[in-house]
Amino acid sequence: MRHALTETWSGLKRNLGLTMAVVMTMWVSLSLFGAGMIAAQQVNLLKDEWYDRIEITVYLCTAKFQTDGACDPGQDATQEQKDQIRAAIESNPQVQEVFYQSKEEAYQQFLDVFKDNATIRDALSADEMQDSFRVKLVDPKKYDSLTSQIQSMLGVQKIQDLHQILDPVFKWLGALQWGTIGLSVLLLLAAAFQIGTAIRMATFTRGREIGIMRLVGASNFYIMGPFLLESLIAALIGAALAIGTLALGIEFIIKANVQQSLESFRWVGWHEFGISAAFVVVAAIVFSVIPTVISARRYLRV
Q: Are 122 and 209 contained in the same domain?
């Protein structure tokens, strides 16, 4: 053990510049990797929160505006059509609750919202509003079965749900987070090649010592130990710096700023940080040990 520690310290001092390059590359790449993991957890939190709030709104035909839908020209949806639509909605197993809102109730809600803006408030009348059904689903992600069932029924003008807005947003957020993780993996591969180069240089400079150890019967692990420790120490220093960077980001960006400004959203915290930190440490170990073992197997032969 003393031999391994002594040789490790000697190797770190001898290849200080290359070791620092490995540490810096690991720091940047693992910071990006951890940020991508935190971003992935943030997107999942927002998905769970917003999808749980989603209600599908089924707007019924009105005589004033009939731009689309299965409407009779110049007529509101009849009571028979409303009853059929309600029955179809309630028969769907994905439906949890159904709320009916008449055009008079919708108009009153409109007046309440725009009570301080006379220009908008006076622009519409009660006859220009629409009756609607607001539908709460058991699983908000399974909305296709309901919309496909009722969208062509007589009396239905339009079906609106937040999935049409949120799905593209979460799609782009997902692409961004995976792009960040992909870039970090490329940088980790660069760090792995640097580690491999460092091992090759170290074995070249210690070739005579390795030959002597081989002659006296030293095992592969005994010879390889210092090289493993060198790469592992450099990687773990980079991981520690990356974890510190992520912790500062959680504290000063998320908690001190974003969370204070947008309190209605759920934001990542120390639990998500802990998960990301664990992945960062595992990535550091994997991307340091594997190239060391590969290089050692090839270049430690005498």
A: no
Give the DSSP H/E element, type plus range, for residue 157.
strand 156-160
pLDDT-derived band at 248, boundaries 50, 70, 90: very high
How far is Cα 72 from Cα 85, in angstroms, rounded to an integer? 15
Say if residue 239's pLDDT is above 90. yes
Share of the chain above pLDDT 90, in %: 12
Task: Clarify whether residues 178 and 156 are in a common domain.
Answer: no
Q: Taking a C-beta distance cutoff of 8 angstroms, is the pair 267, 259 a contact?
A: yes
Amino acid 258 reads V
3-state secondary structure of 62: coil
Residue 161 CA to residue 159 CA, distance in Å, equals 7
Best CA proximity match to 102, nearest among 71, 62, 64: 62
**Whether residues 23 and 46 fall in one domain:** yes
Same-domain pairing of 198 and 280: yes
Do 195 and 290 belong to one domain? yes
* Residues 203, 84 share a domain: no
Residues 201-226 have pLDDT tens digits of: 766 666 566 656 655 655 556 666 67
The residue type at 142: K
With a cut of 80, say whether residue 298 has pLDDT above it.
Answer: no
pLDDT digits (tens, 9 = 90+) for 67-107: 666 787 778 888 899 999 999 999 988 888 898 988 888 88
Residues 22 and 92 placed together within one structural domain of the fold: no
Q: Cα(295)–Cα(202) distance, rounded to whole angstroms? A: 11
User: Looking at the structure, do residues 63 and 110 belong to the same domain, yes or no?
Assistant: yes
Q: For residue 59, what are the domain limits?
A: 55-161
